[in-house]
Amino acid sequence: MVHAKIAPSLLSSDFARLADECERMLSLGADYLHMDVMDGHFVPNLTLGAPIIECLRPHTKGFLDCHLMVSHPEQWVDDFARAGADLFCFHIEATTDASALIDRVHALNMKCGIAIKPKTPVASVIPLAHKLDQVLVMTVEPGFGGQSFMPECMDKVRELRAQFPDLDIEVDGGLAPENIEVAAQAGANVIVAGSSIFKASSPRDVISLFRKTVNDAQPTA
User: Fold this and answer.
1) Is 65 annotated as catalytic?
2) Percent of the residues in the chain that have a pLDDT greater than 70, as a whole number
3) For residue range 41-93, what is the model confidence (pLDDT) as tens digits?
4) CB-side exposure of 104: number of CA atoms within 13 Å?
């Protein structure tokens, strides 16, 4: 049985205080620190890369969940491994040999995830799921924060959970207190949220709500 892992998206943080923001989130109960890596090519936005992860690493013991929204993710594996990333998640749409890339990520002692866009069939990742530490089902189009949650993506989560009861299934995009129940009941257990945590009057309460809702949705023996 899986359990809740709450991953605030640092894309919504104050980048001028990134290390402090990471530690603040951990002190409020976060399990992961979700790092949105965008290259301005695979998605129409530009954020951070391996040099920032490397600078951040000495200042936090938090689990750095790196979501690469980039073209040719193969060229960045070594850099992120050296930088200290804990999990390297790439998009299935951005590579031609996902299986080999998974092996390479694992060989460099990082956990590996695959992300799929809202319009990408879940069938594209199912043959690889047994090799993965995590599957990320995007619930908005990748590239920008602040978009609305797409509940139709929950069918993918349900299918994954039915076939892989012990797999970490992450959802990212528009997650908030008003829709966390939908994601949890579908089977998601790793919850990425940016605006709904960072802009909340009490981020700790939002993180606690997410955790309780996901854990309460887990099947009982």
Assistant:
1) no
2) 99
3) 999 999 999 999 999 999 999 999 999 999 999 999 999 999 999 999 999 99
4) 16
Sign of CA dihedral 34, 177, 150, 165: positive
Is 103 one of the catalytic residues?
no
* Best CA proximity match to 12, nearest among 199, 194, 200, 207: 194
Q: One of 39, 86, 133, 172 is an active-site residue; which one?
A: 172
- What's the pLDDT at 219? 86
Query: Which listed residue (14, 20, 36, 39) is catalytic?
Result: 36
Instruction: Name the token pair of 106.
Output: 């694992």
Q: Which residue has the tokens 């938090």?
A: 62
Q: Of the candidates 40, 71, 66, which has an alpha carbon nearest to the alpha carbon of residue 52?
A: 66
What pLDDT is stored for residue 221 in this prediction?
61
Measured over the CA atoms of residue 130, residue 134, residue 137 and residue 142, the dihedral's sign is negative
Q: What is the Cα–Cα distance from 182 to 118, expressed in whole angstroms?
A: 16
Ramachandran region, residue 10 (left: φ > 0; alpha: ψ -120 to 50; beta: rest): alpha
